[in-house]
Amino acid sequence: MAQKRIYILNGHPAAESLTGSVAKSYADAARKAGHQVRLTNLHDLTFDPDYGFGGYVNQKPLEPELEQVLADIEWSEHVVVATPMWWGGLPAKLKGLFDRALLPGRTFDTRTTTKLGLPAPLLTGRTGRVLLLSDTPGWFFRLMYRNAMIVQIQRQILEFVGIKPVKVTQFNGTSDPKAGSVEKWLKQAAKIGAQAA
Predict the structure, then answer these.
(1) Which CATH number characterizes residue 40's domain?
(2) In sequence order, what are the residues at sequence separation of 6 or more whose Cβ sits closer than 8 angstroms to the Cβ of residue 13?
(3) Considering the entire predicted model, what is its pTM?
(4) Residue 122 and residue 55: Cα distance in Å, rounded?
(5) In which domain, by residue range, is 89 found?
(6) Which ranges carry the Flavodoxin-like fold domain (predicted)?
(7) pLDDT score recorded for residue 53
(8) Which among 45, 124, 166, 171 would be 20 to 30 A from 117, CA to CA?
(9) Contact 156, 108 (CB under 8 A)
(10) Torsion angle of alpha carbons 67, 71, 74, 78, nearest 10°?
(11) Taking 70 as the threshold, does the pLDDT of residue 54 lie above it?
């Protein structure tokens, strides 16, 4: 298997979390398999998550931490985002990172459009993986919520800027896991990491 440059973003804002453990399991296995890995923990980053006064013309300057996130994405061939689902969506700080860092001119081009009329993506040539942790059973997530969060992070965020295809792995029932579930999830993340998938 060819080596890949993998960028992993642990999108949980707490210093210790199951999401962080899943991201680390993926990272450790990928490194052991010979891949180049860069791992960022959201809780280590200091930045203003509010887009605030910024606009496409008058952009708020990026903090060094956000510049590094962009540099790591640009360096990578495969982007992995590990995130919990909170209130049906992304944690506010993680959403703030996307709001602030994924800007026109750097990650997409509003002056050029695709065949569908969307802004041209600028981060093409990269694949993606989302590791999504939630309490909601998978079937309920599909039937009642229509996979809304998956559509958001997979299609409206990552694929929008050119990272595609993006595969999604769900870990459900994470607040009160059954016996053996955590070990199973960590092994599953490691298996995917070793394959750089």
Answers:
(1) 3.40.50.360
(2) 42, 43, 91, 92, 93, 94
(3) 0.94
(4) 19
(5) 5-194
(6) 4-190
(7) 66
(8) 166
(9) no
(10) -100
(11) no
